[in-house]
Specification:
By secondary structure, the chain is of the alpha/beta class. The protein is about 35% helix and about 25% strand. The protein is built from 13 helices and 18 strands. The strands form four sheets. It has a seven-stranded mixed β-sheet, with helices on both faces. Helix 3 packs across helix 4, helix 8 packs across helix 10 and helix 11 packs antiparallel against helix 12. It is globular and about 70 Å long. The protein starts with a helix and ends in a 15-residue tail after the last helix. The structure holds S-adenosylmethionine. The site of S-adenosylmethionine has 18 residues, from loops.
Length: about 400
């Protein structure tokens, strides 16, 4: 039996033993991505990078990490150069970003390097192992978020493309009411599904996963729309989308661990009224398999990534409830330009390099800026525990880039 069908059977067993023989889509996604032995992120199936299932800013070279490092140094200075200054990277993938950041800080900012306490929070055991191998030359510590004591961190929590990888609940609107999407199998489908309605069948080998709708598993799903200030009751029949409740739990935990400093979140997504919009009637859930994007989470189970865009309004507003004040929200292109990406592009005109290398490098830098791609990613900065004076100091990445000043 391949791992794909072994995991499908484990999920089926979980369905059979769950109340009403169904699980939420969030539970399905959690198992498909993070089952401790067979989930996508737990096995060698996880395949990140240019040749893999998907790539991120980090796979374009060291520029992204180096420019972020410039921002971290300024944060350290604003906080009065505390020792230690903890940088807590959450969801560190292959450890490439940590390597780029640490190398650059070591070379360029030795005082900051000596003050640094670099911590990685990584859920995948396989990726954690890869990170440990890659980062051997540096003093890095690994924890689960739960293991970090409350109010113990002075510094910056940060992540790139973590929140989109958290399991989401899915819902559908029927007759003006919100119904949650559950997953069951054809075999376990109850004969009289009312009020459940069978929503579609997606088969995988001999296991047929079936989506059904039912009353929400938690009142948090409906409350979420009060939080983000979107009235979905007027949206069209069968409007379907997702809600990332795990992101709120994650944020609560980060806010609790942070004593003084910042939270920097980079990901693809929208503010709530662009995210939940009648025109985006089927949500943002996407799967990545061998660099191909599609929207069927019920195939390649455990061998493909499943993601959903991030609702930045939810992070902002839930953050406020947890004591995290918004510092700013911008696009990655503007953020990196403000941190010096423009100077790096300009410097290409003076460097003596073979033309093919120059063109490749220019292409990489432009990809980080592409408004339809990585440049359009959201960058949200939140803070906690700063004095009024510290909070008044503008962050470099959130200021208007030099090139854009009139
Ligand atoms: C899409 S990958 C991004 C990796 C890397 N940051 C990058 O940009 O290339 C998501 C990462 O988050 C990790 N992850 C997912 N859920 C997590 C959680 N709850 N806590 C810590 N890490 C998590 C995954 O194992 C993986 O390393």
């Amino acid at each position: 039996m391949n791992s794909n069908s072994a995991l499908s059977e484990i999920i089926t067993d979980h369905i059979v033993t769950s109340p009403q023989k169904r699980i939420t889509f969030a539970e399905f996604m959690d198992m498909a991505l993070y089952h401790p032995e067979l989930g996508y992120y737990s096995t060698r199936a996880v395949n990140l990078g240019k040749q893999g299932d998907f790539f991120t800013s980090i796979h374009l070279g060291a520029d992204f990490g180096e420019l972020l490092a410039v921002q971290f140094v300024q944060m350290w200075e604003i906080l009065g150069r505390p020792v230690p200054f903890s940088m807590v990277e959450m969801g560190a993938g292959q450890g490439l970003l940590a390597l780029d950041i640490l190398k650059y800080i070591q070379q360029q900012y030795p005082d900051f390097f000596n003050a640094l306490d670099y911590v990685i929070v990584e859920k995948s055991p396989v990726l954690r192992q890869e990170q440990q191998q890659r980062l051997q030359e540096f003093s890095v510590r690994w924890f689960n978020l739960e293991e970090i004591p409350s109010h113990s961190i002075t510094g910056c929590f940060f992540s790139n493309e973590l929140v989109d990888a958290l399991p989401v609940h899915q819902f559908v609107l029927e007759q003006g009411k919100l119904w949650e999407i559950y997953v069951t199998t054809r075999q376990n489908l109850t004969p009289n599904p009312s009020p459940q309605a069978e929503r579609g069948v997606r088969s995988h080998q001999n296991i047929e996963f079936v989506e059904i709708s039912g009353t929400p598993s938690t009142s948090k799903l409906v409350e979420y729309f009060d939080l983000v200030g979107v009235n979905i009751s007027d949206f069209p029949e069968n409007y379907r989308s997702e809600v990332n409740l795990a992101a709120l739990d994650w944020l609560s935990m980060v806010a609790d661990r942070l004593q003084r400093g910042y939270l920097l979140t980079i990901d693809y997504g929208y503010i709530a009224n662009r995210y939940y919009n009648p025109r985006r009637s089927q949500g943002t859930l996407q799967c990545y398999y061998h660099h191909q994007r599609h929207n069927d989470p019920y195939i390649n189970i455990g061998q493909q990534d499943i993601t959903a865009h991030v609702d930045f309004t939810a992070l902002e507003r839930w953050g406020e409830r947890c004591g995290l004040d918004k510092v700013g929200f911008t696009e990655q292109a503007l953020f990196l330009m403000a941190l010096g990406l423009g100077e790096r592009i300009a410097a290409l005109s003076y460097t003596q390099q073979p033309i093919s290398q120059l063109l490749r490098r220019r292409d990489v830098l432009h990809q980080l800026l592409d408004p339809l791609g990585l440049g359009g990613f959201g960058v949200l900065v939140q803070r906690k525990g700063l004095t009024t004076q510290e909070a008044a100091q503008a962050l470099k990445g959130l200021s208007v880039p030099e090139q854009m000043k009139m």
